[in-house]
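User: Please fill in residues for this 433-position structure.
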């Protein structure tokens, strides 16, 4: 594959540290052709990036782009304390107002804001399929178009949604989410696949949750998803009520039910696991299952605190998502993954790598682990991977006075979106401000 250009950043993240003098060759196919200190090839254009440190672009595993429309709303509580369920009513009210134009505007806004936060790939857990009035799947195409316009790498996690609660019919705005049968779901997936940009867009399969699909349907969806080699995502045990409702119908908690009925492997990602029984979590992780935590959304919605240290002790691959997009800052998601555990355990350095470095462990969670959960080869600056980068401004105010060997720690624990100077998706750069 021919080389399109060669990057010469001041600092390059090579997996364990920032290094100087590293050249990153980007192929015409949008992938990284080589990484090293060798002599620059003669012909390709050199792109020097002085005062920039490049990281792998961040991977946002779990987003509902339209919920960007709730920003700043639902934060007043005149009737007393709210809950996930009162928030969900506000979200359904937003759904009632969504048409193709509004969904497009909100999604484009969310995806552009993600790029300014250094996010180069998103798993969009998409369940608002139908325009007002019910029929048609026009909104699926709308969100794909918005992602293409924002230039973000896009994994359409197309959600199956059939029930309005465990064993309950869809009501009101939920009818906009309806997928009538497993067979029609896969027909729709085939049609969607034909309309994707193969350079930046792929599909993943989703059962929204045990609230939204009977277990028999989830089993069929998951079997076909495995046959096709797709990533498979589900909301799991975010709220205690979901566990109670599942117990009432199936006799066991959702995760236990999935352990009993699904052939779990590393293509399966359970989102939240806030209230998952530690024994169920350990069995799930041992089978290869991944867990996506959404720290800011889980805090905002008052979900509770997942036992991430126990998941990691069992060997779990953890990744993160921005979920409700009430705030779009992946650096904040990553540090809150650790900070909330510090508050809970009254200790520091809970999520660390083998050398005890929290920032490195968190960076991997926000990049490589996320890419694996979405089934894409990204999240690392290495030959063959997508040329997706986040460039950090070394002259940013938040990084002033920071020693080079503590730069990543300062970025993860002390910086916000203002340090992100640019992002690159598939070799194509865009300024972040
Ligand atoms: Zn979600």
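Assistant: Residues filled in for all 433 positions:
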């Amino acid at each position: 594959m021919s080389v399109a250009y060669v990057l010469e950043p001041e600092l390059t993240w090579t997996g364990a540290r920032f290094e100087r003098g590293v050249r990153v060759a980007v192929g015409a196919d949008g992938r990284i052709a080589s990484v090293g200190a060798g002599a620059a090839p003669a012909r390709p254009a050199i792109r020097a990036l002085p005062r920039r440190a490049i990281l792998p672009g961040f991977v946002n595993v779990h987003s509902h782009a339209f919920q960007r429309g709730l920003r700043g709303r639902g934060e007043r509580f005149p009737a007393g304390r709210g809950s996930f369920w009162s928030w969900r009513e506000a979200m359904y009210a937003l759904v009632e107002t969504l048409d193709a134009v509004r969904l497009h505007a909100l999604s484009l806004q969310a995806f552009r804001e993600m790029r300014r936060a250094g996010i180069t790939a998103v798993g969009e857990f998409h369940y608002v399929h139908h325009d007002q009035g019910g029929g048609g799947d026009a909104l699926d195409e709308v969100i794909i178009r918005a992602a293409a316009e924002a230039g973000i790498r896009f994994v359409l996690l197309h959600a199956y949604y059939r029930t309005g609660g465990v064993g309950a019919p869809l009501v009101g705005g939920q009818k906009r989410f309806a997928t009538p049968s497993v067979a029609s779901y896969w027909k729709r997936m085939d049609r969607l696949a034909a309309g994707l940009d193969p350079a930046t867009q792929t599909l993943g399969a989703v059962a929204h949750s045990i609230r939204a699909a009977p277990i028999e349907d989830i089993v069929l969806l998951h079997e076909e998803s495995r046959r096709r080699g797709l990533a498979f995502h589900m909301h799991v045990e975010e709220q205690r009520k979901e566990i109670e409702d599942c117990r009432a119908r199936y006799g066991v908690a959702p995760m236990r039910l999935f352990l009993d009925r699904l052939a779990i492997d590393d293509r399966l990602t359970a989102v939240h696991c806030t209230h998952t029984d530690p024994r169920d979590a350990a069995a799930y992780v041992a089978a290869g299952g991944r867990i996506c935590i959404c720290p800011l959304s889980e805090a905002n919605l008052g979900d509770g605190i997942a036992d991430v240290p126990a998941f990691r002790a069992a060997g779990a691959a953890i990744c993160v998502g921005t979920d409700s997009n009430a705030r779009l800052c992946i650096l904040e998601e990553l540090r809150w993954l650790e900070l909330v555990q510090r508050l809970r355990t009254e200790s520091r350095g809970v999520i660390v790598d083998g050398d005890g470095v929290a920032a490195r462990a968190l960076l991997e969670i926000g990049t490589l682990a996320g890419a694996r959960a979405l089934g894409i080869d990204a999240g690392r600056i290495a030959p063959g991977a997508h040329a997706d980068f986040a460039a950090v401004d070394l002259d940013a105010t938040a990084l002033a006075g920071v020693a080079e060997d503590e730069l990543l720690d300062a970025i993860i624990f002390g910086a916000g979106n203002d340090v992100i100077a640019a992002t690159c998706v598939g070799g194509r750069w865009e300024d972040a401000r």
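For context: The chain has a mean pLDDT of 95.
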